[in-house]
Specification:
Layout: E1 3-7, E2 10-13, E3 18-25, E4 32-39, E5 45-51, E6 57-59, E7 67-72, E8 77-82, E9 91-99, E10 106-108, E11 112-117
Parallel strand pairs: 2-11
Antiparallel strand pairs: 1-3, 3-8, 4-5, 4-9, 5-6, 7-8, 9-10, 9-11
Length: about 120
């Protein structure tokens, strides 16, 4: 069984911070690229940040300088540190992992709600 357990969402005021966690089981974690997506109900799911097995990262422009994606391989866990949160960051955040060489090996987490009040 493959499982992605997400946590860390919640309600914060604008300017506040949250750290999301995604813990994987049932996969060789070090061989997977980790992605964080977010989705507002009724709208498309958008990529927020990516971290590859080698540690390189990519961010969508709207979160650059505010969000940091990281991974702690020994714990099979990835994180999304979100600072200076804005109301437009409000969404359900999903962890998505994909094998670096076999694209058909991919898995989604259940999502965690992030709400930022103004």
């Amino acid at each position: 069984q493959v499982q992605l357990a997400e946590s860390g969402g919640g309600l914060v005021q604008a300017g506040g911070s949250l750290r999301l966690s995604c813990t994987a089981s049932g996969i060789p974690f070090t061989l997977y690229t980790i992605n964080w997506y977010r989705q507002v109900p009724g709208k498309q799911r958008d990529l927020v940040a990516t971290i590859k097995p080698g540690g390189s990262t990519v961010y969508v422009d709207s979160v650059k300088g505010r969000f940091t994606i990281s991974r702690e391989n020994v714990k099979n866990t990835a994180y999304l540190q979100m600072n200076n949160l804005k109301p437009e960051d409000t969404a359900i955040y999903y962890c998505y992992v994909k094998h670096l060489a076999i694209s058909s090996l991919d898995y989604w987490g259940q999502g965690t709600q992030v709400t930022v009040s103004s």
